Amino acid sequence: TANIPPPRMPLSQRETVALIPREAASRPYVMRVGIAAALFMVGTLAMGGYSTLGSALRTTSPKIVIGGKMMSLPSIPSDYGRDVKVCSRQRKYEIREHFREPIKMGMVGTKAGMTTYFDQETGEAHPVTVIALEAGNQVAQVKTKETDGYDAVQVAYKQCRDRTITWPERQHLRKHGNLPAMKHLREFKISDVSGFEPGQQLKAEDLFEIGDFVDVAGTSVGKGFQGSVRRWGMKRGPMTHGSKSHRQHGSIGCSATPSRVYKGLKMAGNMGNERVTVKKLPIMALSDDENYIVVRGSVPGKKGTIVEVRPTKIVGVHC
User: Mind listing the pLDDT tens digit for each residue in 235-244?
Assistant: First the structure.
């Protein structure tokens, strides 16, 4: 058994004392320095939250006893604690507040169709989607944490006649910014809303630049009721030798146990007509005079679909 000296100070929940045998303390100075460095690394991991010891180490400076002498180790300031922001789809990421980039503003547009864009310098042909910016894209309301519990900017899009929208919608637009009748309202949650006010006109050239990456969200094309082969990409059965199962999905569960069909089982059903977001599409061209944004690649929906264009939000960088 190792001869462990008694501690020089009482143990408590706010202090952590590591005791070193006298035999280790009697060894050369290099050995003692190595032990101190190893203990310091263990304490650093604990301060990062990887053990139950972290809460004690974050409150006071940890101390160790080497050769019968009490020594203090440097501690992390209390204001350097983790600010955990959990994303909805990837909950394992923890981002510090001072490392997070701000979430910027976006716009609303209408899918006009796809075409080919030829690069004048390299001669390459790019499949692009043209997003038309119709009348609108005005700030209808600015929401703050003090009044609504979160920061967001509400944008009104696609001007229409008064009788085509409901009376509460008309009064909402008149109350905030005195705007004309708009067909669609969209919200953009951003980090800073101080630069926006009701009635402000949004410009594509002020929000985006050529080469920026954007996320485009919209409603995908509805394909109706489809079988499991097309909807989920399942393999079909034999087409010959008397097979009675060509494009059927097969068994959906056991009869005795569990005597039911599990929820979420992939079967035939409605395909498409759901909200889809296509991420990291580069902007090839844009113009406020001609009211369009050109992005490389395809976007959800068919011609005339209302889409939301916003700067790319990356998990681990912005949220």
Answer: 999 999 999 8
Burial of 75 from C-beta contacts in 10 A (0-12 / 13-18 / 19+): middle
**223 Cβ contact list (under 8 Å, min separation 6):** 230, 271, 272, 273
Q: Find out whether 188 and 153 touch, Cβ atoms under 8 Å.
A: yes
d(CA 210, CA 141) in angstroms, rounded, equals 28
d(CA 292, CA 173): 25
CB atoms within 10 A of CB 158: 16
User: DSSP letters of 218-252?
Assistant: EEPPP-EEE-HHHHH-PPP--SSTT-S-SS-----
Alpha-carbon span 290 to 108, nearest angstrom: 15
Whether residue 139 contacts residue 199, with contact meaning beta carbons closer than 8 Å, is answered with yes
DSSP bridge pairs for 70: 65
Helix (H, G, I), strand (E, B) or coil at 53: coil
Which residues of the chain have a pLDDT value below 50? 11-26, 29-30, 46-59, 79-85, 89-93, 95
- C-alpha 113/C-alpha 110 separation (Å) is 9
Reported as a single tens digit per residue, the pLDDT across 68-101 is 666 666 555 554 444 444 555 444 445 455 567 7
* Secondary structure of 63-120 in HEC code, one letter for each residue: EEEECCEEEECCCCCHHHCCCCCCCCCCCCCCCCHHHCCCCCCCEEEEEEEEEEEECC
CA gap 199, 209 in Å, rounded: 23
